[in-house]
Each structure stands twice: as structure tokens, then as C-alpha cells.
Design a protein that fits this description.
The chain is an alpha+beta fold. 16% of the residues lie in helices and 31% in strands. It has one domain: Immunoglobulin-like, CATH 2.60.40.420.
């Protein structure tokens, strides 16, 4: 009888562990959407000179997978030094033509996102596919949204 109770006590632990693992690996739709943090620092403008700190300017995460209709919120923390944009890139040259040409802002463009503010992208109008984007002010900052 004592052995049976010991094994019964292990069942809830296994169920909780399985639920935690499923939650961590699940790509289900979040009620609040997905979040991307815009990161910068006080690096010099590239027109002034080279500053290795610019390499840490980024959208984090760089690539994000969403279900169509799920919002993507781009947050610019108050600690950022500069405004940024989230502007889509659309390839205008067909196929694998090199060099490629792109146009920006045909599907979405946040306008300026000041430090401490955010931009919410509604993915409902976007067809399933990949959507590369850049910051128009700092084009070395780029990312991609995959809509499924």
C-alpha cells in the first residue's frame, strides 16, 4: 500500500513537468501578441565615424513567427538614444536578379517610434509569407516576420 501512494505522488509532478514543457515549446497564439524590442545605445552616427557599438543595434528577436491576425508589438525602451522605424521591404526585381531592388513601406511602416513608445503591427491584412523589414533611419537594423 505504501508503494502505491509513492507512485501516485509522482503522477502530478510528471503532469506538471509535461505541461511546462508543452508551454515552453508551444507556438500557439498569445492573447497579447508577440513582442520585439528595439535596441540601440549611444553609438556615433555612421556618418561621423565607425563605432563598434552600432553592431549591437537590433530588433530582438530578429526573426519572429506569427499566426495571421496576431499582433506584433515593437517596443522602444526609454533607454534608447534614437527614434526608429519598422518598415517592410518589398523586392521589386523579379526572381534572383542581382543586384536586387527593394522598395519600402508598401505593406507597413510604423513612422517614427520615439524612445519609450511602441508600434503594434496588425498582421491580419498580410498574406502568409515572409516579410523582411528595416529601420529607415538605421538600415543596418533589420528583421523578418513570418506569417503563417
Amino acid at each position: 500500500m505504501r508503494i502505491q501512494f509513492r507512485w501516485l505522488g509522482l503522477v502530478p509532478v510528471l503532469v506538471l513537468a509535461a505541461a511546462a514543457l508543452w508551454q515552453a515549446t508551444s507556438e500557439g497564439v498569445s492573447a497579447q501578441g508577440r513582442h520585439v524590442t528595439i535596441q540601440d545605445n549611444n553609438a556615433l552616427d555612421p556618418r561621423v565615424g565607425f563605432d563598434p557599438a552600432q553592431g549591437r543595434w537590433q530588433f530582438n528577436p530578429t526573426n519572429i513567427l506569427v499566426t495571421r491576425g496576431e499582433p506584433v508589438v515593437f517596443n522602444s525602451p526609454p533607454s534608447n538614444a534614437d527614434p526608429h522605424t519598422v518598415t517592410d521591404l518589398l523586392r521589386t526585381t523579379p526572381g534572383t536578379t542581382v543586384p536586387a531592388s527593394f522598395t519600402g513601406g508598401t505593406r507597413f511602416d510604423s513612422g517614427l517610434i520615439q524612445p519609450g513608445n511602441s508600434f503594434s503591427l496588425d498582421t491580419g491584412p498580410l498574406a502568409p509569407g515572409n516579410y523582411p523589414y528595416v529601420c529607415r533611419l538605421h538600415p543596418w537594423m533589420n528583421g523578418e516576420i513570418t506569417v503563417r
